[in-house]
TrEMBL record:
May be required for ribosome biogenesis. It comes from Pteruthius melanotis. This is Ribosome production factor 1. Residues 63-72 have a biased composition (Basic and acidic residues). It is found in: Nucleus, Nucleolus. InterPro entries: Brix, IMP4/RPF1.
Length: 324
């Protein structure tokens, strides 16, 4: 080993074998003409990317463990949410103008405990089975709600009847091709009325590892990320659907989570396994809402005055601009 000719094979000083590189740095899947081969090579390339990412993650974790308390703070990843364009209408909880608006808006009687929520849930004309089942399951989530099926009756005629029977809110579930695709929420008697596009509807039987049927206890309500004036109004609309005092013994939670102007609804039951661990089970149904318009007063498609309308070409110019 000391004759100047370099390391002798097998003496423990062999240079490490170079790692086999599956793809050259300038590799491009699009250059492959054969479709099946291109798809196969793309899957192999993705697999290699995942392995490299996992190896780098393990390496960084070991370095942090070795440094202990001297490890630098974790870098905050850049996401669309934390790179969001600032909105001038973002609500400040200490703003006197916001407090005055809350004290005088259409939902003030509810938050002042002068009214008790009573909800009417109805559908478009001649609903199909899936929409009917969705309405029935939604009624088990919202306490003191009643399901009635429309038989060619116009909404303008339904609303006065709801007001006469002391209903505080009207929910209309619209469908297209037997699938629920829209939700109209009108606060009675003076509005406002919100029109949502509905998607990703999952009934209870379609949810994996779901819990048992929900009980009749009043659920807790969680409203996440409704930060602007518009989002604040929408959050108050959702809050006004549920009675004031939740029954914690039922351990049921209804969540409206706003992310990138999509409102995700989930209904869970939780249980405390220990002082630090909590287990949750989804009860269903689940769905996603996207606000299309907010109208003053009750439903009026012809002469109604709109506070806000979603105009895609004008409003969706930036991926980091959100309205709720």
């Amino acid at each position: 080993a000391g004759d100047g000719r370099g390391p002798v094979p097998g003496d423990g000083t062999d240079p490490p074998a170079p790692e086999r590189v599956l793809f050259p740095p300038t590799f491009s899947v699009s250059e492959i003409k054969n479709k099946q081969r291109r798809h196969f090579m793309f899957l192999r390339w993705k697999q290699q990317q995942r392995k490299e990412k996992l190896a780098l993650k393990k390496k960084r974790r070991k370095e942090r463990e070795a440094l202990g308390d001297k490890a630098p703070p974790k870098a905050i990843p850049k996401t669309i949410e934390n790179q969001r364009v600032y909105d001038e209408t973002t609500v400040d909880p200490n703003d006197e103008e916001v407090a005055f608006d809350e004290a005088t808006d259409e939902f003030a009687p509810y938050f002042n405990r002068q009214t008790v929520p009573k909800i009417l849930i109805t559908t478009s004309d001649r609903p199909r089975g899936r929409t009917v089942r969705f309405c029935e399951q939604l009624a088990t989530v919202i306490p003191n709600s009643h399901v009635y099926y429309r038989r060619g009756l116009a909404l303008k005629r339904i609303i006065p009847q709801c007001i006469a029977r002391d209903f505080t809110d009207l929910i209309v579930i619209n469908e297209d091709r037997k699938i629920p695709n829209g939700l109209v929420l009108s606060h009675l008697p003076d509005g406002p009325t919100a029109h949502f596009r509905m998607s990703s509807v999952r009934l209870r039987k379609e949810i994996k590892r779901k819990g048992k049927e929900p009980t009749e206890h009043v659920p807790e309500v969680i409203l996440n990320n409704f930060t602007t004036r518009l989002g604040h109004s929408i959050g108050r609309m959702f809050a006004a659907l549920f009675p004031h005092d939740p029954q914690f013994i039922g351990r049921q939670v209804a969540t409206f989570h706003n992310q990138r102007d999509y409102i995700f609804f989930r209904f869970h039951r939780y249980i405390f396994k220990s002082e630090k661990k909590v287990g949750i089970q989804e009860l269903g149904p689940r769905f996603t809402l996207k606000l299309r318009s907010l109208q003053k007063g009750t439903f009026d498609s012809k002469f109604g005055e709109y506070e806000w309308i979603h105009k895609r070409r004008e409003m969706d110019t930036s991926r980091r601009k959100f309205h709720l």
